[in-house]
Amino acid sequence: MILRKSMSLLGIGSARIDLILPKEAYRPAESINGYFLINGGIIEQKIKRIDCDLVMVDHTKGNEKVIDTATFLRSKQILSEELNEIPFVFNLPATIQASSASISYHFKTKLTFSEGIESIDQDNIKII
Fold it and tell me: Which CATH number fits domain 2-127: 1.10.10.10, 1.10.3720.10, 2.60.40.640, 2.60.40.1640?
């Protein structure tokens, strides 16, 4: 048990997060309704919070900009190998620029635990 806990604190066998979205393309001002799928690891862990950033990547300039952030404060125990779904709602800004060859977007999701290494997920979306 001590070995499994130590491995989990290092990120080996810890819980993982995946943002599940209903589609890939969205319009400005559209509301996105999906969910976070949390898959428990090899031991029970305490979730502290979930942060999800909408990131714009400007490939011409080679930089990234966080457009908006949604934080879900959760103090929840996740059991070993337990599956959890947490609702996700995100309203896109009305003034967001459309995706193109030089501009792309993705959600970067970070699951933070009371102890251990964070779980990170990235999901690409298109703005049309």
Answer: 2.60.40.640
R_g (Cα) of the chain, nearest Å: 16
Q: Beta strands 45-58 and 83-91: pairing type? A: unpaired
- Name the nearest CA neighbour of 99 among 58, 65, 70, 66: 58
Q: Is the dihedral of CA 64, 70, 72, 78 positive or negative?
A: negative
Q: Which residue type does 10 have?
A: L
Q: What is the distance between the alpha carbons of residues 120 and 112, in angstroms, rounded to a whole number?
A: 9
Q: What is the pLDDT of residues 49-104, one digit of tens each?
A: 999 999 999 999 999 999 999 998 767 888 888 999 999 999 999 999 999 999 99
